[in-house]
């Protein structure tokens, strides 16, 4: 599989696709961006340009972007194809069949799917061994995490090539060893959201205070080490063994008390109104502040050896 990537085709010019495009351009690639759904070219180009500014990319990077209306045309001649289209299985099957026909057999075909495993669409291809999922965390030009998931027909060489390319782009790829709905990270998020929605729905806490609690408490530690390493450090000299011995039984009681809320219209309205009140400054303003903080946090983690490569884990 190709790892010397010079030309990247990105199919889908939504938020994920444009973010991927900006990342690849910033790392010296030529990018062929296609959007079968017909997103206006000017809008896509402006979005990619904004991402390049986020990354402090050289001015000439934007000149390596070409825009296409046909996915197969964009994929022809590419060394890597990243699909970032709608989460519709029938659409992905048709698209990957077309991408498979348009590219050389040693070109990786990577889907950004947030929930589908590659086995559900790679059998539409003549060369399914080079099809995998490379699920980024939004926005992928800033957040390093990428979940790499192989399917029933994905070759070990394809997995290794994807990991190599992503490392070269400064990403933090993790190998997910099972095909699960939502992969791993979205399942972790869904577990937290389930309890958060229930706590809001039962009146235990407001939307704004719940977000404050996570962002100013566990979220700060999770951003540095993750939940299990953080739990280990909280155990003092005894580490994880001490935590599980003394806090494990109460934690099981908390698990047993968790409920399964229904996403009723009433709860939906409560969540929507709550977050609108919380973000009264406006989504664009908050998003810009968040992205600036992300850049500074990533730089700090790198300086302290707690970066996307895994920190102090020799």
Automatic annotation (TrEMBL):
UniProt entry tagged with the keyword Oxidoreductase: yes
Keywords in alphabetical order: Oxidoreductase
Pfam families for the chain: 3HCDH, 3HCDH_N
Pathway membership: Lipid metabolism; butanoate metabolism
Occurrences of domain 3-hydroxyacyl-CoA dehydrogenase NAD binding (ranges): 8-177
InterPro entries, alphabetized: 3-OHacyl-CoA_DH_NAD-bd, 3HC_DH_C, 6-PGluconate_DH-like_C_sf, 6PGD_dom2, NAD(P)-bd_dom_sf
Residues covered by the 3-hydroxyacyl-CoA dehydrogenase C-terminal domain: 182-255
Entry-linked PANTHER family: 3-HYDROXYACYL-COA DEHYDROGENASE FAMILY PROTEIN, 3-HYDROXYBUTYRYL-COA DEHYDROGENASE
Similarity section: Belongs to the 3-hydroxyacyl-CoA dehydrogenase family.
Name of the molecule in the record: 3-hydroxyacyl-CoA dehydrogenase NAD-binding domain-containing protein
Naturally occurring in which organism (per UniProt): Flexivirga alba
């Amino acid at each position: 599989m190709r790892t010397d990537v010079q030309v990247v085709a990105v199919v889908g010019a939504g938020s994920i696709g444009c973010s991927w495009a900006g990342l690849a351009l910033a790392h010296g690639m030529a990018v062929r961006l296609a959007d079968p759904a017909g997103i206006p070219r000017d809008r896509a180009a402006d979005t990619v340009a904004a991402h390049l500014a986020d990354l402090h990319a050289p001015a000439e990077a934007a000149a390596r972007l070409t825009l296409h209306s046909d996915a197969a045309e964009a994929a022809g001649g590419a060394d890597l194809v990243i699909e970032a289209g709608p989460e519709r299985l029938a659409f992905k099957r048709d698209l990957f069949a077309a991408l498979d026909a348009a590219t050389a057999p040693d070109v990786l075909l990577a889907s950004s799917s947030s929930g589908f495993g590659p086995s559900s669409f790679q059998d539409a291809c003549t060369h399914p061994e080079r099809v995998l999922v490379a699920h980024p965390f939004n926005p992928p030009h800033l957040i390093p995490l990428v979940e790499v998931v192989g399917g029933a027909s994905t070759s070990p060489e394809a997995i290794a090539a994807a990991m190599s390319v992503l490392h070269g782009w400064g990403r933090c790829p993790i190998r997910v060893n099972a095909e699960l709905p939502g992969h791993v990270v979205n399942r972790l998020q869904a577990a937290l959201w389930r309890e958060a929605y229930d706590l809001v729905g039962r009146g235990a806490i407001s939307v704004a205070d719940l977000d404050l609690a996570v962002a100013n408490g566990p979220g700060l530690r999770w951003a540095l080490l993750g939940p299990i390493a953080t739990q280990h450090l909280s155990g003092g000299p005894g580490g994880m063994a001490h935590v599980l011995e003394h806090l494990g039984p109460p934690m099981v009681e908390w698990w047993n008390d968790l409920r399964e809320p229904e996403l009723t219209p009433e709860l939906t309205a409560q969540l929507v109104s709550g977050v609108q009140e919380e973000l009264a400054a406006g989504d664009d303003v908050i998003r810009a502040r968040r992205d600036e903080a992300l850049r500074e946090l990533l730089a700090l983690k790198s300086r302290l050896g707690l970066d996307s490569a895994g920190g102090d884990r020799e």
